[in-house]
Amino acid sequence: MHSGAPYRFLIAGGAAALVNWLARFPLELVLPFAAALLGATAIGMTCGFLLYQRWVFPTSDRPLTRQIRDFVLVNLAGQLAMFLVAVPLREVLLMLGFGALLAGALAHMMGIAIGAVVNYLGHRHVTFARSSHVDPS
To answer: How many CB atoms lie within 10 A of CB 46?
Structure first.
């Protein structure tokens, strides 16, 4: 892996996370918080895949279909971590007196941060790994 990949991952992941975070606001106008999280996640995942595949891990020689499959699976793990942090944290912040907009924004941001760690490790070792490092199946 290129020595700059962790920094590129942070930049690309930060951009995808920002898209994810910002997409939730308009979605939450018409959807409950949890559903808006899921919709924003799908938008952020699409952005993330394109950035990671082209800019962070361009040397992967794995077939595109496997990259997409593994990207979605790794992201599901990262998004599960995000969801398990964001939803209860929002409720705690609401109980502490934070307004709904701020509670949702902070909880979503913390969830994204936790999910990013899971995503980096999964994408580095699974999604965009060189084929010699992964099971050929």
So the answer is: 14
